[in-house]
Amino acid sequence: MLDVATGTLLPVDLLFMQRTPAVDGSLNGWLATIAELRRIPAARVVPGHGPPVAYWPGALDAEERYLRRLRDDIRAVLKAGGTMEQAVDSAGRSEQGQWQLFDDYNPRNVVTAFAELEWE
Amino acid sequence: MPSRRRLLLSAGLLPLAIAAARRAGADEADDPWPDIKASLFADRPIRDGAGILGLEAPKRAYDAAIVPITVTADVAQAAERYIQAVHLIVDKNPAPVAGVFHFTVDSGTAGFATRVRVNEYTNIRAVAEMNDGSLAMAAAFVKAAGGCSAPALKDAEKAMASLGRMKLKAPDSVILERPNQAQLLISHPNFSGMQFDQISRNYIPAHFVQEIRVRYADRVIMTVEGNISLSEDPTIYFSFVPHGPGEIAVDVTDSEGMKFSQAWPINPVPAS
Fold first, then answer.
1. Reduced to 3 states, what is the DSSP secondary structure of residue B87?
2. What are the chain A neighbours of B169 within 8 Å (beta carbons)?
3. Which residues sit opposite B92 in a β-bridge?
4. CA A115 to chain centre
5. What are the angstrom distances between the C-alpha of B153 and each of A109, B27, B74, B193, B223?
6. What confidence tens digit (pLDDT) does each residue in A44-91 have?
7. B183 to A56, A83, B171: CA distances (angstroms)
8. Which of A2, A106, A115, B243 has the highest CB neighbour number within 10 Å of its CB?
9. Domain positions in chain A
10. Can you give the pTM of this predicted structure?
11. Contacts of A25 in chain B (CB under 8 A)
């Protein structure tokens, strides 16, 4: 949602800052959507989770980095023939410390994304 | 919302429905296991699974709609003594029997893994039925809630477009005359009947994988009677013992009578 008068973008649950992003659909789909969002010429953004207002599109960087790390790590586990449980123990771990509620959301994100990526 | 009773009926589990109805009005905190046990196994004794089978499940599930379950088998599938079926039961789910997994001597092991939905804090049980008809059980308590009504990860249109697509992941080198593990993935929303469609404001009717038959070189490896408690896009890790080259052939039938089949050639090599 974009407020044209002020150039303020409100991407609700597509933009998490500080708090661990929650994957509750397609991880690949979210990453593709981030690429589309970047093309929106907004002046500022009100993230769905995080500070009241942030710079655009730099506000997307941390979320995109985390989601890419998650995807790369899960793909590495899948390539090695690993299981969902093994992926939970390793994927995304290097992002721990960068995000709030990491231990509550990262394992769940791994499970959801693993079930998607194992079809690739 | 479909009642517990209707789901049991739709799943063809009339005795369970009667048992559930009989205790209607009873305290919900009641342990459902005695009724389930009586419905499925009457008064047959069930011994502890130690030395026969084990069950591994996360103490607290990360995603209640995708709870990984591993059943380990401690007996080989020898002609004189083998596990002919494993009943996977999620006590407090509306349809407690997640699946009945039938195995043969050609399975090599009755150990398998799958993923289930968990509706509320519950015991999960694996009851092995030996070829002599005796029963043994392993169980674990899992903390998870909301798995049966959780919205599908894929939108319905996408799920229907890929309905029945399958994938088999087998090891790069399959070894002759020993159990080899493979993973079968079936693209199917496995709608539970408890999932709400936010757009149509209706519950999505139950539509789930009902039977999975796996053969290798025309010999039956595993047959699964599935239900709504198996996760979206059901997946099963199973084993098979090849005696020569052949195909893994999978036939799936769902609750709407739709049939899906696929086969994958395997070229096993001798153990080095």
1. strand
2. 81, 118
3. none
4. 16
5. 12, 34, 35, 15, 27
6. 999 999 999 999 999 999 999 999 999 999 999 999 999 999 999 999
7. 44, 10, 9
8. A106
9. 2-117
10. 0.89
11. 153
Q: Which residues contact A120 (CB under 8 A, 6 or more apart)?
A: A75, A78
DSSP code of B39? H
**B96 Cβ contact partners less than 8 Å away, ≥ 6 residues apart:** B16, B32, B36, B89, B90, B229
Residue B103 token pair? 């195995």
> CA of A24, closest CA in chain B: separation in Å?
7
Q: For residue B71, which amino acid is it?
A: V
Token pair belonging to B98: 């997640």
CATH value of B4-266 in 2.40.128.630, 1.10.540.10, 2.30.42.10, 2.60.40.2470: 2.60.40.2470
- Residue B153 has its nearest CB partner, among A85, A107, A115, at A115
Q: Which fold has domain A2-117?
A: Metallo-beta-lactamase; Chain A (3.60.15)
- Going from the C-alpha of B199 to that of each of B155, B196, B204, B243, the distances in angstroms are 11, 9, 11, 52
Domain residue limits, chain B: 4-266
ipTM: 0.88
Size of interface A-B (CB pairs under 8 A): 39
Is residue B135 within 8 A of residue B44, CB to CB? The reply is: yes
Q: Tokens for B158? A: 């996408």
Say if CB B83 and CB B130 are below 8 A apart: yes
DSSP string across A74-108: HHHHHHTT--HHHHHHHTTGGGTTSSBTHHHHHHH
pLDDT digits (tens, 9 = 90+) for B150-187: 988 877 788 889 999 999 999 999 999 999 999 999 99
Q: Among candidates B240, B183, B189, which has minimal Cα distance to B217?
A: B240
- Quick check: B131 and B107 in contact, CB under 8 A? no
C-alpha–C-alpha distance, residues A83 and B170, integer Å: 13
CA B245 vs CA A15, B174, B193: distances in Å: 51, 10, 41
What sign has the CA pseudo-torsion A22, B119, B153, B239?
A: positive
* Three-class DSSP category at B120: coil
